[in-house]
């Protein structure tokens, strides 16, 4: 039973070798590392190369007692790295996916090592606010299209990173060939990627009630195995029992369940 549990944890949270540590850490939180995975030090030591980083993997089992996987990950990352070593500042990003990823990295570094206000968001990174340093790093590295769009936003200390990520992802400058088309047709005119697998959406897309699109199988797996929320805006979504066939011309649309207190 213990082996099956640890194998499941390893498969669910293992980091891809080409994935930045900060993005991986955020995805672990999204996947429930803070809620439903609790390990004692002996179990944590048996996770092997979970992070693909020797220093972090070695540190997972150092803390005695029983703790959430999230607490062990955070403690190990903090012990092994500084913000300067962990965060790779970008001179430029060119796509909305790169922009959202960079903003996530900046925010996670701030939560782990920086701003006192954001350090209180350790158990819920989606509550973090965009600090002035994060805002400057994001806007200075933005391509002209997004730099113009971001200039329309008046920065303040209460600007949520989550809302800013949704703004970047949703922003469009209407192509001339798509001006008179419906939203789904307009999306089809571009090479928009699925934000889960990062490949072009194509025809097998699925639109959540919040308006964000993904591959059917990608969002199905995400909602069933990782989180019950949209990966972009974090609105709660419910996966219907019946999923249209892969080649069905009808878009699959999930129902939204409003988050309590919002």
UniProtKB/TrEMBL annotation:
Keywords: Ligase, Metal-binding, Zinc, Zinc-finger. InterPro entries: Znf_RING (IPR001841), Znf_RING/FYVE/PHD (IPR013083). Residues 194-234 form the RING-type domain. GO terms for molecular function: ligase activity; zinc ion binding. The keyword Lipoprotein does not apply. The keyword Ribosomal protein does not apply. PROSITE patterns: ZF_RING_2. It holds the Pfam family zf-RING_2. Coiled coil: none annotated. This is DZIP3 ligase. It comes from Spizella passerina. The gene is Dzip3_1.
């Amino acid at each position: 039973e213990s082996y099956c549990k640890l194998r499941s944890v390893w498969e669910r949270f293992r980091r891809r070798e080409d994935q930045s540590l900060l993005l991986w850490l955020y995805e672990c939180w999204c996947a429930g590392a803070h809620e439903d995975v609790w390990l004692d030090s002996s179990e944590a030591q048996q996770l092997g190369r979970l992070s693909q980083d020797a220093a972090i993997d070695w540190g997972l089992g150092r803390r005695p007692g029983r703790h959430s996987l999230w607490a062990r990950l955070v403690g190990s990352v903090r012990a092994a790295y500084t913000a300067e070593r962990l965060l790779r500042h970008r001179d430029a990003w060119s796509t909305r996916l790169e922009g959202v990823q960079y903003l996530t990295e900046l925010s996670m570094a701030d939560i782990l090592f920086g701003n006192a206000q954001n350090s209180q968001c350790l158990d819920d990174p989606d509550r973090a606010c965009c600090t002035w340093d994060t805002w400057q790093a994001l806007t200075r590295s933005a391509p002209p299209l997004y730099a113009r769009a971001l200039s329309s936003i008046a920065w303040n200390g209460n600007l949520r990173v989550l809302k800013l990520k949704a703004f970047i992802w949703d922003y469009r400058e209407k192509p001339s060939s798509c001006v008179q088309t419906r939203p789904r047709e307009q999306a089809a005119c571009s090479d928009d990627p699925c934000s889960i697998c990062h490949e072009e959406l194509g025809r097998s897309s699925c639109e959540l009630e919040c308006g964000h699109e993904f591959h059917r199988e990608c969002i199905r797996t995400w909602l069933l195995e990782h989180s019950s929320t949209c990966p972009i805006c974090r609105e709660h979504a419910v996966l219907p029992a019946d999923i249209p066939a892969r080649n069905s011309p009808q878009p699959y649309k999930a129902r939204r369940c409003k988050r309590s207190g919002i």
